[in-house]
Amino acid sequence: MSTLAIVGAGPQLGRAIGRRFAVEGVDVALIARSRTTLQAVADELSDTGVRAEVFPADVTDRPALHAALTAAEERLGPIDILEYSPAPSPADLRRAPLVEATKVTVDSVLAQLDLYLLGGVAAVQHVLPGMLERGTGTIIVSSGAGSGPVIAPHVANVQIATGGMRNWILNLHAALSGTGVYAAHVAIAAYIGQGGHDSQPQTIADAYWRLHTGRTEAELVIQDLPDDYLDRGLADKFVEP
Q1: What is the SS3 assignment for 7?
Q2: How many CA atoms are closer than 13 Å to the CA of 153, on its beta-carbon side?
Q3: Number of helical H runs and strand E runs in the chain
Q4: Burial 57-81 (b: 16+ CB within 10 A, else e)
Q5: Which of 23, 27, 16 is nearest to 74 (CA)?
Q6: DSSP letter string over 42-64?
Q7: Are 169 and 162 in contact (CB under 8 A)?
Q8: What DSSP character marks residue 207?
Q9: Over 80: is that where the pLDDT of 35 sits?
Q10: E strand or H helix at 71, and its extent?
């Protein structure tokens, strides 16, 4: 029995990834800030027959993230698969607004680095030593495709952070060759749950399972953006009504 830890587990993609792996017999550790959201996802996974447990933590609080991952290991066993995909809430965006490329400042980048790059480094480095010791493991780190494959100047401060994360994971993929541990980056150019077939959480979750089982690609780009994505801006879930 393997264990998947989803860091940044939410009600759309996190739920779908959890279910896709759970139906294959993988136990699921759900990590994010909201216990209520996590518990709803865990309850939905109960029909799969695997263990789905919740471990609330904020990825920008490194001791709390470490404690959550440690608790998951104690309850469910070694983390064999890590999926890291945090996302800001509308409240986060009020505190640390998105900034267009010509207006980027040092301060506007720092919060994004904390969420995406530094949180990702902390999560990966928590599980990586054990994976290397066991000679097996999967690390999948997700971001918007503005991290590299797609140009998105209206969210430039985020892309500085996610671009750094993407670069690191691509290098990690190369560095892990021959170790039995696999790392990949997923660049999502889609309004998840709002577009066509390729934007649906279940479709994307299937792609994650293929990455985990195929273990060859350094990066998967999910491309399902409308032509007017620059005018449209953020996905609906990040915009308060």
Answers
A1: strand
A2: 4
A3: 9, 7
A4: bebbebebbeebbeebbeebeebbb
A5: 27
A6: HHHGGGGSS-EEE----TTSHHH
A7: no
A8: H
A9: yes
A10: helix 62-76
Tokens encoding 198: 């390729």
Please tell me the number of Cα atoms within 13 Å of 124 on its side-chain side. Answer: 24
Q: How many other CB atoms are there within 10 angstroms of residue 125's CB atom? A: 10
Instruction: Give the H or E element holding residue 170.
Output: helix 156-175
- Global confidence as pTM: 0.92
Q: Apex CA 165: angle with CA 88 and CA 33, to 5°?
A: 30
| C-beta separation of 29 from 8 below 8 A | no
Beta strands in the chain (DSSP E): 3-7, 27-31, 52-54, 81-84, 137-144, 181-189, 219-223
Q: Is pLDDT of 240 > 50?
A: no
92 or 182, greater pLDDT: 182
pLDDT per residue over 149-198, tens digit each? Answer: 888 888 999 999 999 999 999 999 999 999 999 999 999 988 787 777 88
Q: What is the mean pLDDT of residues 138-155?
A: 90
HSE-up of 141 (CA within 13 Å, CB side)?
29
Q: 54: which strand partners?
A: 30
- Which amino acid type is present at position 91? A
Name the burial class of residue 208, with classes exposed (0-12), middle (13-18) and buried (19+) by CB atoms within 10 angstroms of its CB.
buried
Mean pLDDT calculated for residue range 93-122:
94
